Amino acid sequence: MKKMQSLNRIAVLAIWILCLLFNSAFAVPSNGDGGSDSPSPAPTPVEMICHPGKECYPKVFVPTTTFLPVEIDQVIPPGLHVRLNIGTGGREAKIIDPTEDEGTAVYVEKDKKAELQAGMEYSDLVVVPDQNIDQPSVLNPGLNSNETDAPPPVQHIPPEPENLKPNPHLTNSDWETFNNAASVLKESAPQAASLIEALQTLSDMSHEPEYGVKLIEISVQKLINIITSPEYASSIRSSAAITLGNSLQNNAVALSRVKKLFGTATKDVVLEPLLNALLKNQDMILNRRLMFALSRTVRIHNGKQDFVALNGLGALEKVYTATNDLPLRGKIAAFLQDEFLDMNMREMEVKSGVKTGSQNVIKSMDDLSGWCEIFQGDLVGRKNGDGNGDLDSEVKVLATLKALKEKYGKDCKPKPELKGWLGSEKERVKKEEDDGEWIKVPLDDVEHLFFGATA
């Protein structure tokens, strides 16, 4: 009997333990402070937007680490990197990557702010559509390509950088070499041999951002003086131009240093002397280097506005039509494409002193329609079949001509000789195995835009 009672007690205990386990597995947590292992409450239903014949999507955009398209009636949460896709006309957004060169930016539409959850804070840097811009026209993918009044895309303005993160791989010996070369530029009248050697060293080292920033801080005025002075040999001036261009290339801190040094005088101290030197110089290699330095300095804040104000486009037109150097023509064409026609690369300038978090897009007042005829005249006059052509510059001119046609439409009219030149050039390319598709594609693109579909 005692044995049976003992077994019964064990069975009751086992049933009691099973009940406890069962209850804990299916218990609903209370509103009190539960333990960290307690189940989470049921998620709040996501509000969806549905349109006939289209898959539903969340009302509030859900970002990832890659750009995803944003529907026009979706709400964009604060703190995201947002861009306009020129191809589709729609917006794309993603989570900000702090390691990107573009910096951090957010975009919040003014009429959508109230729909965000209470308590959300907005970043100090918010890009919003300009008061005078008709935003729906920007987002309308059906906009005619020859309508030139459409505003540029709203995009992020990086905060002005202050300092570079030090490069731990630069040794004391490296810095000594740099400082020794830079000290030559500080001399009032350095010997030609010393200057040549110093500039050769600096042109190589200025690719490193830290050296580029340091050079701008201590020697930018000296570099400008050497570049623009006919008293120096063309080879010395060329090395100085390369050094200046390398110091500013992909170096936002160095670009900001120039503006801090000269302020509103940057146009007169930097850009105008370079433009004048390009107009007056006759040395082929030096002109290429001058164009390289100029293409880097226009990326200083407000640089393109200053360039246009100095009639830089007119100056480049004079240089382009006067020179027989095809590589220089290619550099000028690429410059126009990158800085004035490629909407992904165009700098969105802001009014100075804005502290409210909004930034006003300033519309560029440039007009490049006249270049349409200039580029066509250049192409049809080339004799590539005689071995005198420069295929790299040809591709650059074709790409820029394509961009001009896309921007100006009917105002970019074909010259009568263009169609014949395109046909003969395509026939020549077929026989030249080395030319390949990289030349055929822009030829086809230009022919299609100017004369319709090709066979």
TrEMBL record:
Residues 137-148 have a biased composition (Polar residues). Pfam families: SIL1. One of its GO terms (molecular function) is adenyl-nucleotide exchange factor activity. GO terms for biological process: protein transport. Residues 150-161 have a biased composition (Pro residues). Keywords: Endoplasmic reticulum, Protein transport, Signal, Translocation, Transport. It comes from the Eukaryota. Residues 1-27 form the signal peptide. InterPro entries: ARM-like, ARM-type_fold, Hsp70_NEF-Inhibitors, Sil1_fungi. GO terms for cellular component: endoplasmic reticulum. Residues 137-173 are annotated as: Disordered. SUPFAM superfamilies: ARM repeat (SSF48371). Belongs to the SIL1 family. Interacts with KAR2. This is Nucleotide exchange factor SIL1. The lineage of its organism: Eukaryota, Fungi, Dikarya, Ascomycota, Pezizomycotina.
